[in-house]
Design goal:
The complex is a heterodimer of chains A (86) and B (223). Chain A is 34% helix and 29% strand. Chain A is α+β, with helices and mostly antiparallel strands and 86 residues long. In chain A, α2 links the parallel β1 and β2. Chain A is globular and about 40 Å long. The radius of gyration of chain B is 18 Å and the shape is globular. Classes of the chains: A alpha+beta (86), B alpha/beta (223).
Chain lengths: 86, 223
């Protein structure tokens, strides 16, 4: 199923942006998925939860927003930067 | 703990599309039209290519990259009809070919000694539609042993294709398949679709297909 390929690519993008050592601090991955992107949302969500739940990740949550059209992109990453709250 | 948000806004397919653009550039430089064949399993992609290699392989230099989840059976079948290398990609579970696999497979193909490239995708009407392989055109196949409504069930594959090849027309007397209805469904999804009617069994059953290939080759050579 290609949702797993897409989920693996999302993880690669996160690693490319953050560096491997920072991946345990990843808390959420924001995604935009278009209605015509050819993606089964529940399947993508399941694949991401599975991949983001095991090392080098430490339980990040996929936050998927539906969009019109065929957009498919990682919109943001949320990380815990280890500093106390302001 | 402070949570910081990092804006990314990166297309998930960006890396694949970058590799696909690289494949497209290599093919264009060599003047090789490339076709990505997409269909359900069993629609007749390999049979169409077997006949094509056998009939045109003496006059045209045809290259094939073929993808399967497991086995090299399709590549082995095709290799019986050509002296050229048939590149087999075993995806090991993945439901589609991606641009990296095609780019790697092409490393072993002498593109300067190639007239046409066929990429036989994994049999699947869903996932291959989402992956650009660097081809010039996607070609969707639909056999008369399937439902006529496949185009409306899997619209993305038929919307992305420029050509629909109806296959196994020799079986029409034995199956409840309405060609008219299938074409109507296909054109409803993609009004620009060129429809070709084929049979690998009937005499002259591939003349429209061969005519299409020759026309594309002429167009590329004239460019």
């Amino acid at each position: 199923m290609h949702e797993m390929s897409v989920a693996l690519e999302v993880c690669r993008i996160a690693e490319e942006r953050l560096g491997r050592e920072a991946l345990p601090s990843l808390r959420a991955v924001g995604l935009e998925v278009g209605d015509d992107a050819g993606i089964e949302l529940s399947s993508l969500s399941f694949c991401l939860e599975t991949l983001l739940g095991v090392p080098p990740f430490a339980g990040a949550t996929p936050l998927i927003e539906r969009r019109a059209g065929d957009v498919l992109r990682v919109s943001y990453l949320e990380i815990d930067d280890g500093r106390p709250d302001d | 703990m402070a949570v910081r948000t990092i804006e990314v806004r990166e297309r998930v397919m960006a890396r694949n599309d970058e590799l696909a653009a690289g494949v497209r550039t290599r093919l264009a430089r060599a003047g090789v039209p490339a076709f990505n064949l997409i269909s359900s399993p069993g629609a007749g992609k390999t049979a169409l290519l077997e006949r094509t290699l056998a009939d045109l392989g003496r006059t045209l230099r045809l290259a094939v990259v073929t993808g399967d989840v497991q086995t090299q059976n399709d590549a082995d079948r095709l290799a019986r009809h050509t002296d050229r290398l048939v590149q087999a990609v075993v995806t090991n579970g993945a439901c589609h070919l991606d641009a990296l696999q095609v780019s790697t497979a092409l490393d072993a193909v002498d593109l300067d000694a190639t007239d046409l490239l066929f990429i036989e995708n994994v049999g699947n009407l869903v996932c291959p539609a989402s992956w650009d392989l660097g081809e010039d055109e996607k070609i969707a196949l639909l056999s008369v042993t399937e439902g006529e409504d496949k185009p409306v069930k899997y619209p993305k594959a038929f919307r992305q294709a420029s050509v629909l090849v109806l296959t196994k027309l020799d079986l029409i007397p034995y199956v409840p398949f309405s060609v008219e209805r299938a074409v109507r469904y296909a054109l409803a999804v993609n009004p620009d679709l060129q429809v070709l009617f084929t049979s690998t069994i009937l005499p002259e059953g591939l003349e429209e297909w061969y005519g299409f290939l020759r026309a594309r080759l002429r167009r590329r050579r004239a460019a």
